[in-house]
């Protein structure tokens, strides 16, 4: 690691307080010595993610992740170690050392792609605001009420109506065609060797990551050509499934208010901001993904879906709803006037009117019921029956009985039938479902018992013993000292555990925070943070755990001896074949010793025999 030396890395770590860094991603609340929060790495409703300011470590007691400030950045932003150090250095205004070698590693690729995007933003913005070519696009935006300063703030731009405007510009800045293609900005020609610009004659919306860096673009046509919208493709820095447009700008307000408004379009977000609605983001394309939902869960408790008031918007709403709900968010649907999008509503009626719509937003159940009823002619008997059938899954999904009864009354009223009719249909529906469930379970159980594996492979069990022993070593110094006296680190058969044992054997004064910096294995790191941040007390190490540790030590020694016996058997066979009986006798004596040890497992403790690993 010549580029970033240890001294630099230490400086970056010491000056980035883990509480500050993690606060950008989730709401930390003080809880005794620690801070706690909803885990940004898994879905949960009660906080099990703990951060300790003194030790500068975090650990989630729900999903097990843990580590220091670098590990956090690597996991949450999907970075390698160098990138995490670079970003945290920039965060505290520390300038990065000069790169001596022109390495072509992955992080160089990424940082060049970021640079390319920065240049492209400047290029597009210049064309929009300073040239005749961009005047039509500029007029379009101004007519939609977008102010000059908003154009700059949101880094809006114009891609010229030419085949290689951006390409030539970036080539002149010194970037290779390969790299520009990796950035997703040019497309190779089908015939011939050239390239052409991906975005042509389009209004450009810059898409940023959570840190506000430009990572991709969305382009909207100025005329009637197709497709109306075009996004950057997936690149090493851009995956539209993990990105929400406007989130970098909105996250502070989302966190403060605990709520977020999801819209469909770029201009919905921009207009919202211009009118002071700052907790607003857009999904790129209409179908919301699970990772986008999780991203929102980090900052918000409540989500308002404000998709366009048309059929497509309605379908997208229903899909998005379940995904959001499943991450533990409270979800509401905003009823926009038919055929209007949030942009139009906000511009024509202002912030107050839009906020009124938010306050009148309905729950999923009401929204679903409403949309199931409105599309039908309920004076026709067949349509009525159909509506009732469609409503059943929604009704059955209401867990609260009082609420359910309330809705039954409402629906009966709308359909003009007795509540008893709805109730009996619901009962029938629930019986059918549990019948199906039972059949499914029976089939599954049968399958499981057919393919049941009787015993785990021996080496698998061995990994478990080693893992448990490492856990105990981390928990207690008495056990650690015992293991040090009984085992060499190379008696652990798993490579990962072997190098962990080596590091743990060398630890000074239980300085686990220091050890975290050296451990490469995420599993070991998590064991350390778990013990380090757990409520566990030293007294909890009791006789039982000491005995447990002794048991694992015996198992590890036993395994090594069995391996030795196998090796000896092979040797003996070889020397018998070559009729070297002196050697055979010597090996047989060794084998006898091993067999005796194996017959009396208690003799294994305190007996540092030579396991002769590969020593023949
Ligand atoms: Zn977690």
Overview of the molecule:
This protein is an alpha+beta fold and 616 residues long. The protein has five domains: 6-91, Zinc finger, CHC2-typedomain (DNA Primase, Chain A); 106-238, Alpha-Beta Complex (DNA primase DNAg catalytic core, N-terminal domain); 243-361, Dna Topoisomerase Vi A Subunit, Chain: A, domain 2 (3-Layer(aba) Sandwich), CATH 3.40.1360; 376-443; 458-604, no CATH class. 55% of the residues lie in helices and 11% in strands. The protein is built from 25 helices and 17 strands. Strand 10 (214-221) and strand 11 form a beta hairpin. The radius of gyration is 32 Å and the shape is globular. Helix 3 crosses helix 4 (81-91), helix 16 packs across helix 18 and helix 19 packs across helix 24 (543-577). Strands 12-14-13-15-16-17 form a six-stranded mixed β-sheet, with helices on both faces. A five-stranded antiparallel β-sheet has the order 1-2-3-4-5, sandwiched between helices. The longest helix has 35 residues, at 543-577.
């Amino acid at each position: 690691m010549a580029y970033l030396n240890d001294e630099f890395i230490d400086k970056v770590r010491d000056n980035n307080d883990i509480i500050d860094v993690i606060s950008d991603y989730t709401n930390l609340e003080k809880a005794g010595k620690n801070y706690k929060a909803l885990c940004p790495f898994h879905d949960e409703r009660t906080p099990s993610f703990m951060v300790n300011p003194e030790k500068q470590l975090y650990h989630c007691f729900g999903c097990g992740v843990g580590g220091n400030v670098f590990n956090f950045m690597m996991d949450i932003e999907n970075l390698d170690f160098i990138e995490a150090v670079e970003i945290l250095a920039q965060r505290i205004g520390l300038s990065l050392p000069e790169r001596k070698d022109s390495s072509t590693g992955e992080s160089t690729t990424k940082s060049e792609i970021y640079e390319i995007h920065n240049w492209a933003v400047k290029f597009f913005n210049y064309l929009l605001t300073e040239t005749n070519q961009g005047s039509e696009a500029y007029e379009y935006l101004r007519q939609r009420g977008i102010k000059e300063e908003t154009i700059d703030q949101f880094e809006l731009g114009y891609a010229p109506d030419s085949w290689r405007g951006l390409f030539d510009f970036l080539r002149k800045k010194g970037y290779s065609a390969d790299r520009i293609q990796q950035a997703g900005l040019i497309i190779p020609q089908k015939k011939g060797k050239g390239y052409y610009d991906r975005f042509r004659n389009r209004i450009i919306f810059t898409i940023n990551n959570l840190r506000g860096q430009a990572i991709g673009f969305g382009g909207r046509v100025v005329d009637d050509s197709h497709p109306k919208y075009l996004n950057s493709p997936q690149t090493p820095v851009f995956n539209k499934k993990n990105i929400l447009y406007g989130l970098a700008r909105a996250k502070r307000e989302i966190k403060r208010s605990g709520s977020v408004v999801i819209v469909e379009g770029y201009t919905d977000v921009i207009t919202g901001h211009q009118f002071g609605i700052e907790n607003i983001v857009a999904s790129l394309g209409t179908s919301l993904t699970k990772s986008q939902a999780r991203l929102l869960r980090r900052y918000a408790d409540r989500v308002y879906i404000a998709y366009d008031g048309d059929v497509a918007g309605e379908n997208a709403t229903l899909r998005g709803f379940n995904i959001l709900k499943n991450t533990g968010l409270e979800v509401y649907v905003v009823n926009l006037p038919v055929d209007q999008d949030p942009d139009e509503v906000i511009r024509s009626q202002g912030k107050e009117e839009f906020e009124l719509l938010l306050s009148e937003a309905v729950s999923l159940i009401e929204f679903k019921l409403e949309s199931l009823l409105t599309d039908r002619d309920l004076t026709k008997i067949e349509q009525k029956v159909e509506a009732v059938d469609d409503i059943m899954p929604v009704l059955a999904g209401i867990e609260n009985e009082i609420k359910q009864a309330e809705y039954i009354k409402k629906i009966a009223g709308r359909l003009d039938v007795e509540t008893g009719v709805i109730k009996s249909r619901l009962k029938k529906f629930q019986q059918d479902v549990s019948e199906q469930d039972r059949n499914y379970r029976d089939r599954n159980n049968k399958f499981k018992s057919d393919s049941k594996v009787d015993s785990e492979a021996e080496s698998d069990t061995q990994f478990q013993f080693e893992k448990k022993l490492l856990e105990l070593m981390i928990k207690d110094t008495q056990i650690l000292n015992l293991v040090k006296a009984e085992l060499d680190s190379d008696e652990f058969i798993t490579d990962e555990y072997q190098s962990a044992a080596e590091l743990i054997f060398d630890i000074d004064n239980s300085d686990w925070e220091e050890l975290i910096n050296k451990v490469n294995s995420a599993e070991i790191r998590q064991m350390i943070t778990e013990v380090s941040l757990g409520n566990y007390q030293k007294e909890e190490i009791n006789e039982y755990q000491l005995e447990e540790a002794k048991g694992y030590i015996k198992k590890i020694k036993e395994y090594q001896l069995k391996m030795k016996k196998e090796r000896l058997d092979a040797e003996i066979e070889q020397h018998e074949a070559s009729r070297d009986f002196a050697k055979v006798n010597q090996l047989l004596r060794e084998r006898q010793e091993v067999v005796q040890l194996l017959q009396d497992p208690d003799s294994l403790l305190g007996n540092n025999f030579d396991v002769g690993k590969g020593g023949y």
